[in-house]
Amino acid sequence: MKITIAQLNPIVGDIESNLKNLQTVMHMGTRDQTDLLVLPELYLTGYPPQDLLSKSWFIERIILGIERIKEYSQEFEQMGILLGTPYPGDLPGKGLFNSALLIQQGQIIAARHKSLLPSYDVFDEARYFDPGINIEPVPFKDELLGISICEDAWNDPSLWPEKRMYPCDPIQILAEKGASLFINISASPFHAGKEDIRYRLISSHAKRHKKMFIYLNQVGGNDELVFDGRSICLDSSGEPVCIFPAFQEHTATINTQQAGSASYSPVDEIESVYQALVLGLRDYISKCGFNKAVLGLSGGIDSALTACLACAAIGSHNVLGISMPAAHSSRGSVEDSRLLAQNLGMEFKVIPITDVYNEYLNTLAESFKDKQPDTTEENLQARIRGNFLMAFSNKFGHLLLSTGNKSEMALGYCTLYGDMSGGLSVLADVPKTMVYELSSFINKHQEIIPTPIIIKPPSAELRPGQVDQDDLPPYEILDKILHYYIEESASVPDLITMGFDAELVRWIVKTIDRNEYKRRQAAPALKVTSKAFGMGRRMPIAAKIY
After folding, report:
1. What CATH class is the domain 274-472+515-520?
2. What positions carry a catalytic annotation?
């Protein structure tokens, strides 16, 4: 049997656009004389549709979309279409399933519903869907299809040897009921290192049950989430028949009699993070209706990296960088930024803020006369810059990109309504140490980011001689503690047992928790680690933890 696998980038909510792309790949399947066309999880609506699923008018659009697909299928007598979509149910509960529909010749010949509904990290499917109860293979042509949806494949005992998350393994059940071919349609968000975990998972299923396994993943950026695609087809011995590219749409047709002859190696971790940030940025800008971006260029490595990512995502001619020197800015902060902009071919402006800053101070002098200068005056500079950048965003319709990294966001080492201003926080899930790794990756073949930007001590330049390490521990130590506390959920005693200084650990953890209110007001951040600030980490603001 020939199967066409379509790794596509749907737009959330845009059913019309998603249907048009479906028609395109249907014609490609006809060219290849395919028997079955497979599309990702919730392809019709895009993933995740979130509270759109609570709107009755949106459900009506979904139903009409399914009817359109049934009409399309009548033109292709031999081809079945297997796609993911929300599907109304008639049992008590939410009244909606996360489903895979098999459509052929104008009819839904089978509907299979997702059984395991994740409600951890960024997932909230139990909020919207009822779980599928009956797990049954689907007879289609010469095969008995074991159809599953994303999480249904993630309860393999080899992945969770000690404690599995769910009481059943849908893949095992399908195997026991005679499935001859496994197909998992998915919308699995990217984070660094996840690709290799997924490959080992799917390979384990194929080897254990001695059946071909097709794993199809969505690709593209939707808000904070980036989907890397990287779909795979493995033969009955777990060898790769085909491996799709990462971070791009791709369609290919395989034959179920093919033996594995491809080779697999995961994308280099830093390269994959770079590609994820570029794709996430590109899709966020385009899907939100923007064409251009603006950002502040401080002469530091964070803004330089953000500029490189923006130019790669939407083209240098669509990116504006603005340097806004003040009294404490070094000469290099402007000249290094100018050289960066020249290397990238992006537009560059210099707007000094010293006079505006002095006017602020003069205006506040009477009210502040009995107070010593402190971070208040430092933050005024950041907020003036934020106002100028927002003015360009408003006047010219550019999306303002915030440039702060995860290490700064964790400790609140950033200014509300200042450098935190923006429509998207590009690096807010990228630790400072990874910022340097990504910068080295960009400079691998030629110097794009000027060397002085990379080697200078990090500094906000808000007071004379200021460097980050005046206020923060070395980033090599800080980022390790942040990783264990945020991504691995380590406690303070755990961290101290690991050998970190007890006083430092307590200060970092207390500072992280104290600055939750800032992060709640930050722009959306592209998720590239296993636990990002934002939709996947829901912490109280008014709380005392340590």
Report:
1. alpha beta
2. 41, 114, 150
